[in-house]
Amino acid sequence: MDASACLAGDSAAYQRTSLYGDDVVIVAAHRTALCKSKRGNFKDTYPDDLLAPVLRALIEKTNLDPSEVGDIVVGTVLAPGSQRASECRMSAFYAGFPETVAVRTVNRQCSSGLQAVADVAAAIKAGFYDIGIGAGLESMTTNPMAWEGSVNPAKIATEDEKTQLKLGTEAFHVDLIHSIHHISSIAVVDRRGHDP
Fold first, then answer.
1. Using CA atoms in the order 9, 10, 11, 12, what is the torsion angle rounded to 10 degrees?
2. Architecture in CATH for domain 28-136
3. Full-model pTM
4. Whether 95 contacts 137, CB under 8 Å
5. Could you count the other beta carbons within 10 Å of the beta carbon of residue 59?
6. Residue 117 pLDDT > 60
7. 3-state secondary structure of 57
8. Contact 74, 84 (CB under 8 A)
9. What is the pLDDT of residues 152-187, one digit of tens each?
10. Cα-flanking dihedrals φ and ψ of residue 43, to 5°?
11. Using one digit for the tens of pLDDT, what is the confidence trace for 140-161?
């Protein structure tokens, strides 16, 4: 199927038994701008207010009927407990999705957004639904990446490298953005190289 048929909102053009079989296609990609944590333009923006406009843009640009979506899967890491799941659910409501559209979160650390897309693709391929949304959401301002739990004392006391974090137990307090800059300098990848 031609992606323009999807973008034109012609869901009738899609047939699972068609020439295209059970291919899974990505028809749109949207994101917020990047800003600095704790001091950028989004520092006073709640996570649900970050995701909702992106979901709304997806609906508008693809002429998607929100009720046709089988699942919205959002990759996230930092929010404690079920807080982020609730924020993602509210984002879907703000964007215009009905309560019949399921929303869930997935955490696979730095690749959580990619895992969300993979989960949706696998569910489509398996025939659970025909249309799904894979997304990612993080707010380094509202959910700073600082360790607030306790570390197993046996892990701290041992000298065995296999049980120590590569950057040491104090690495819990290193923001993700600092890690990215460090890795980029080692791998010699400039800022433009990270963008699609």
1. 160
2. 3-Layer(aba) Sandwich (3.40)
3. 0.68
4. no
5. 17
6. yes
7. helix
8. yes
9. 666 555 544 444 444 444 454 455 566 666 667 777
10. -60, -25
11. 777 665 555 666 666 555 544 4
Distance CA 101, CA 59 (A): 14
Q: Where are the domains of the chain?
A: 28-136, 153-194
| Dist. CA 94–CA 117, nearest whole Å | 21
- The CA-atom distances, in angstroms, between 43 and each of 52, 93, 120, 142, 179 are 16, 23, 30, 8, 20
pLDDT in tens, 11-24: 555 555 555 566 89
Contact partners, residue 144, CB within 8 Å, separation at least 6: 37, 38, 78, 175
Tokens of 17: 């038994």
Measured from the Cβ of residue 167, the count of other Cβ atoms closer than 10 Å reads 11
**Phi and psi at residue 4, to the nearest 5°:** -65, -30
Report d(CA 50, CA 159) in Å as an integer: 43
